[in-house]
Amino acid sequence: MTEGRDDTGDTARGAPRAASPPPPDREPEPPQLSSEQLLQGRRMIEIRHKGEVYRLQATRLGKLILTK
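Predicted structure:
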């Protein structure tokens, strides 16, 4: 153990160390959107992706279906 630090890596004064960046081979966590944000009260929306149109549909049982 280094003098002035405890086992958690905090300094003797209680200041935490700066968080290290994620390893380069790992992607950051993706943002999350709720289905309510996407559908906005509708049962179906269309999503354009790379020139194609996909449909995201909520079923009566509360499931989501994405079709091309």
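Summary: The chain is about 5% helix and 25% strand.
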